Amino acid sequence: LQAARAGNAVTLWARDPARAAAMAEARENARYLPGQPLSAAIQVTADAAAAMEGALFALVVVPVQHLRAAVAALPPGGCPLVVCAKGVERGTLCLPLEILEQLRPEAPAAVLSGPNFAHEVARGLPAAAVVASGDAALRSLAGELLGTAGFRLYGGDDPMGVQVGGAAKNVIAIAAGAVIGAGLGENARAALVTRGLAELSRLTVALGGRAETAAGLSGLGDLLLTTTGAGSRNTSLGMELARGTPLEAALASRAGVAEGVETAPALVARAAAAGVELPICAAVAELLAGELSIGQAMGRLLSRPRRDE
Ligand SMILES: NC(=O)C1=CN([C@@H]2O[C@H](COP(=O)(O)OP(=O)(O)OC[C@H]3O[C@@H](n4cnc5c(N)ncnc54)[C@H](OP(=O)(O)O)[C@@H]3O)[C@@H](O)[C@H]2O)C=CC1
Ligand SMILES: O=C(CO)COP(=O)(O)O
User: Fold this and answer.
1) Which end of the chain is more exposed for a tag (fewer CB within 10 A), N or C?
2) How far is residue 30's CA from residue 44's CA, in Å, rounded to a whole number?
3) Which ligand ends up closest to the CA of 257?
4) Which ligand does the CA of 61 lie closest to?
5) Where are the domains of the chain?
6) How many CA atoms lie within 13 A of 55 on its CB side?
7) Given 68, 104, 139, 169, which residue is catalytic?
């Protein structure tokens, strides 16, 4: 919707032909963005090769645990990819651009991230994001083609920092939701989020990113949105867990993905491999794995003194 609003001819690809046909017919993505009409500039198809033919780039917007399968299913060659997933792949511990690098090593790629609830961007409400890549031509092309006055898109040359921010904020949001759900108050959440930002920054630097990226839109910006926005799937999941809903039931009752769930253990393992301890993210991973009760997790999240805070 934003790409069309910025004046581009857009092809929306969906993997399910029946759903693609329904969207084309209704001119609406009724499942994910109900009530938001698809403008005439948007064509819908289930044919990935047709969607990518002649495209300047493709936005890849699938959850990170499905990114490898989705990209592997794309036709070979094709256009550069701009990935919007926020998380770490379980097993491989890859960040999104690392998955793309393994599958399409020759193709330029970028990551687009920031404080951007999809339903608000879809409505054209003001927002900002960063598009980061080692490929300067791709990041400026994406910025020019997707940015508008109401959707300010900054170019960035620290894709590692941007990816770490997007992954870590989802895990910290589960912790923040748990703190609020447990009735521990706004002071506790602010303390937790600030310490979460310190974890996000440490990991960013350890993986070769820059601390200033952690303080930007894809780090602090998205952390603020996700840990305070009522619409966050990760924060609301944390709230449900704190109120006693079992993880399976909480996941079954929601429509979209909560990336922090699968990302938490992978992020902690990736950090450990880089020699970095992430106490908040580790507590979330152990809570999700059933290794900590909510009470124990709260103790770990809020009581443990940190030498760097
Ligand atoms: N929603 C938001 O506000 C934002 C989300 N993000 C990030 O974007 C990513 C996607 O999130 P979101 O769209 O909300 O997730 P949802 O769970 O709402 O939707 C998942 C989408 O991915 C598709 N999908 C899943 N598996 C595959 C696959 N193997 N091949 C092709 N398509 C697949 C689904 O298609 P189908 O319907 O056919 O199952 C669906 O369109 C996440 O990493 C999230 O963190 C980033 C910024 C904001
Ligand atoms: O990434 C997001 C906003 O920038 C969406 O957050 P949730 O997945 O927690 O809803």
Assistant:
1) C
2) 13
3) 1
4) 1
5) 2-158, 160-302
6) 24
7) 169
- Band (288; pLDDT cuts 50, 70, 90): very high
CATH number of 160-302: 1.10.1040.10
Kindly report the length of the chain.
309
Do residues 25 and 37 touch, judged by C-beta distance below 8 A?
no
Nearest CA-CA partner of 203 in 170, 167, 235: 167
SS3 call for 131: strand
The answer to whether residues 56 and 110 touch, using CB atoms and an 8 Å cutoff, is: no
Instruction: Tell me the two tokens of residue 94.
Output: 């890859």
The confidence band for 302, taking pLDDT boundaries of 50, 70 and 90, is: confident
The residue whose C-alpha atom lies closest to atom 20 belonging to ligand 1 is 62
pTM, two decimals, is 0.97
Atom of ligand 1 nearest to the CA of 14: 38
What is the pLDDT confidence band of residue 306, given thresholds at 50, 70 and 90? low
Atom of ligand 2 nearest to the CA of 166: 1
Q: Of 33, 45, 61, 253, which is best to mutate to test ligand 1, by the most ligand atoms within 8 angstroms of its C-beta?
A: 61
CATH class of 2-158: alpha beta
Cβ atoms < 10 Å from Cβ of 138: 22
Residue nearest to atom 21 of ligand 1 (CA): 62
256 CB within 6 A, ligand 1: yes
